[in-house]
Structure formats: structure tokens, C-alpha cells
Amino acid sequence: MITQISGKQFGRVLVFLILYLFVSPFFPSGSSASLVVHFLLSVTLFLAAYAVQRNSQERSIAMVLMALALVLYWLGIFKLVPYSAQGALILFAAFYALLIYSLVRQLLNASYVTSGVLSGTMCLYLILGLLWGTLYTLLEEISPGAFSGVLLENPGTSELHLFNYFSLVTLTSLGYGDITPQIPGAASLCQMQAIVGQFFTAVLVAWLVGMYGKPNPKHEKETLSETSSK
Hints:
Layout: H1 7-23, H2 34-50, H3 57-77, H4 84-108, H5 115-142, E1 147-148, H6 159-171, E2 180-181, H7 184-211, H8 217-229
Antiparallel strand pairs: 1-2
Helix pairs in contact: 1-2, 1-5, 2-3, 3-4, 4-5, 5-6, 5-7
């Protein structure tokens, strides 16, 4: 099935993703100002869920996961329900995984590479970072001390924001060393993310650059078959 990807839709998601990742470290955790960051994340997740392909059940599932995750997330912020933070992280991880699956499908089925496809690809890259950042945070919640480093010693910074930073650093294979894994499970997660990051850059981005402005081969075959049938 050939689909068109909206540049405006994914452009909005991309702007909010970048804004959230850039702004979040500047607001101390637990302060009233940090509510701005939480609200920004909520809007970002809603826009991302809305960007899921409309004519499939994936959007409905994404909306449900997003709503449940945000409910638990906000309950965890105000500490109204025990373990709501861990529950929100699990749902966030499931939500990001669904977004990644849906985005990959839409990108591969696009009729040709456009600005919308490029925006979607950048969103996919950042959402990969958020997925692993969520997994790192969840692992640290379940097994305290799974990670260590000077950044984690700052009590005024949210762990989720720190692990999002660590995730993107690992995804790009920079490895500054300010946060490091301390248990085999944490090291394994870092290893898998580094592999995915290299694969993404080497294969998907190269394919997009090579195909920019050219018809998708799959689209050409479908067009030829339709023409011959007439």
C-alpha cells in the first residue's frame, strides 16, 4: 500500500521533540517550572500518536497507550499512586515501540521521498532515543545503581531527562563517559542501542539521500502493473 506522509504533521512532531529534549534539562526536577516540561512532553506524545497512520488500528492503540501512560505519568509527578512512575515508563516504552513500528511502515510505503519523509525519519531517530532513554530509566528504577556517573549525582535533575541525554549520546556512539553502565543488563542495552544507531545511519539515511526526489521502486512497479492491466 502506497501512502503519502504529511510534512506538516511530522514537522510539528519534530519541532516539539527537539524543543522537549533541549528545554527539559534547564528546569530543576520537582520545581513548579518543571511542569512546563511535563506539559511539553504530553503535547509531544499526543502529536506523535496523532501522526500514526489514520486508516489502521495502530492509531487507536497508540492513543490508548498514550492516554494511559500520561495518566500514570502525571499521577507519579504528584506522587498520588505508588509505583505509578514505573507503570508510566513501561507504557511509554510500549508506546514508543509502536510509534517506531508505525513510522517504519509509513516510511517504507511512501510513494516517494519528500520533506515529510525526511521529517518522519528524523522523528524516528529521536523516538529511538526516547525509547532507550525510557528503558534506561526503568532499569535504574528497578535496579538502583545499574548506572553511575557524575550527572546522576545531581539531585536536582530528573533521571528521565538525564537518561534521554545518555540515550542520544549512545545512539550516536559518542560515549562521553559521564554516565556508564554498571551491570550486564545495562551494558547489553547500551550495546544494542549503539548497533541500532549505526545501522540507522549507515542504511536508512543513505537510502533516503539516494532516493530523494526519485520515485520509490515499489511505486514504479505498481504503476507499471496498473498500466499493463489497462
